[in-house]
Amino acid sequence: MHVTHLSLADFRSYARVEVPLDPGVTAFVGANGQGKTNLVEAVGYLATLGSHRVSSDAPLVRMGAERAVIRAAVTQGERSQLVELELNPGRANRARINRSSQVRPRDVLGIVRTVLFAPEDLALVKGDPGERRRFLDELVTARSPRMAGVRSDYERVLKQRNTLLKSAAMARRHGGRSLDLSTLDVWDQHLGQVGAELLAQRLDLIATLQPLADKAYADVAPGGGPVTLEYRSSVGAEAGPERSRDELYAQLIEALAGVRKQEIERGVTLVGPHRDDLVLGLRGMPAKGYASHGESWSYALALRLASYELLRGEGNEPVLVLDDVFAELDARRRERLAELVAPGEQVLVTAAVGDDVPEVLAGARYAVSAGEVERL
Ligand SMILES: Nc1ncnc2c1ncn2[C@@H]1O[C@H](COP(=O)(O)OP(=O)(O)OP(=O)(O)O)[C@@H](O)[C@H]1O
Ligand SMILES: [Mg+2]
């Protein structure tokens, strides 16, 4: 799929901007702080309902404005659609498809698909497990948009279970009434069901992503691998393409039973997908804590390129967004990366220096300056 038109109102630094887009490569070029990343961040938001830079919506709304609107016309094969999201920080966001009546924001997932690589992705390698869980879950959702519902169910069940455990822990400390364990059993079952679903999807994803990540790393850093992706599960589940949901459910329930006493003491859920990690291995060592800066950067890029290949291979061609990538690479790697991504249906590139964008990526160019986006 590709975006044919992007329109923003009160998004970040833009009061209003209209950007017609072609398939193929488009480069946004301009000095620092002019609004290049803001444009691609908006496209990414339509695909994930989140920003790759901030965890809340407030900074996405132009300072002084009340709400932001992101609108995009999208073409997939013969089909064209218009998606629109209104961001209302502190209140519910609103969404529309083809100017019809309102839908839930999560209903627009799957219309715009992106794989976005940005300097912030270094946190995938160097950051906390939460960064890697988000990476996995966003990709799981890109493969199968209905997983957005499973993810939010999991969050909800987890929150409610934690509330129950917390009040049990409080009661225990103050000598109050002890917890009705049958209630907790019910929450265990809910958590086990949605947790197993999420776990199964993550494990299947990792098994599929592994060879692609290894290949992508060899492409961006020849001879630097191998790369291994290993799921570290709090319930002992291992990666594999066809782990049965029942099996994972049983593992989760057993693990919950095993930590129940501690959970009631501490008032928090100690096992489940929200406690898991993806261990990124490089030449037999964990990349986190061992890999150099350049290696970590190549690793993060390789994970994104592998994601891109995966979605393309599944007939789900996303828009590839490369935010500020080329400045970090030497001339040879720049050319390699450019050749790799040039055939993509749509590639959006940002660069502070136009000459950093390789020749192979000749396409449309926009100058971005003080919130003006002008086609060159
Ligand atoms: N909510 C907001 N309201 C108004 N301006 C904002 C808001 N959020 C960010 N900005 C402004 O947007 C600009 C940053 O835009 P952006 O990140 O797109 O820059 P860029 O062109 O990608 O720069 P660089 O080359 O440094 O990456 C900053 O000047 C910032 O002050
Ligand atoms: Mg930028």
Describe the protein in words:
This protein is of the alpha/beta class. It has helices at 36-48, 122-126, 129-143, 147-173, 181-220, 245-266, 293-313, 331-341, and strands at residues 2-11, 14-20, 24-29, 68-76, 79-87, 94-97, 102-103, 114-117, 227-232, 277-282, 285-286, 319-323, 346-351, 364-369, 372-375. The strands form three sheets. The protein has a six-stranded antiparallel beta sheet with strand order 2-1-4-5-6-7, with helices on one face. A six-stranded mixed beta sheet has the order 8-12-13-3-14-15, with helices on both faces. A three-stranded antiparallel beta sheet has the order 9-10-11. The relative contact order is 0.17. Magnesium ion is lined by residues 36-37, 323-324, 350.
Features:
binds adenosine-5'-triphosphate, 8 helices, 15 strands, binds magnesium ion, globular, 376 residues
Order of helices and strands: EEEHEEEEEHHHHEHEEHEHEEE
> What value does the average pLDDT take?
94
Oligomer: single chain
Helix content: 40-55%
Structural class: alpha/beta
- What is the general shape? globular
- Spatial strand order of the main sheet: 2-1-4-5-6-7
Task: Report the C-alpha radius of gyration, rounded.
Answer: 22 Å
What's the total count of β strands?
A: 15
* Largest pleated sheet: 6 strands, antiparallel
Note the beta-strand portion. 15-25%
Quick recap:
By secondary structure, the protein is an alpha/beta fold.
Secondary-structure map:
Layout: E1 2-11, E2 14-20, E3 24-29, H1 36-48, E4 68-76, E5 79-87, E6 94-97, E7 102-103, E8 114-117, H2 122-126, H3 129-143, H4 147-173, H5 181-220, E9 227-232, H6 245-266, E10 277-282, E11 285-286, H7 293-313, E12 319-323, H8 331-341, E13 346-351, E14 364-369, E15 372-375
Parallel strand pairs: 3-13, 3-14, 8-12, 12-13
Antiparallel strand pairs: 1-2, 1-4, 4-5, 5-6, 6-7, 9-10, 10-11, 14-15
Helix pairs in contact: 3-5, 4-5, 4-6, 5-6, 5-7
Bound molecules: adenosine-5'-triphosphate (ATP) and magnesium ion.
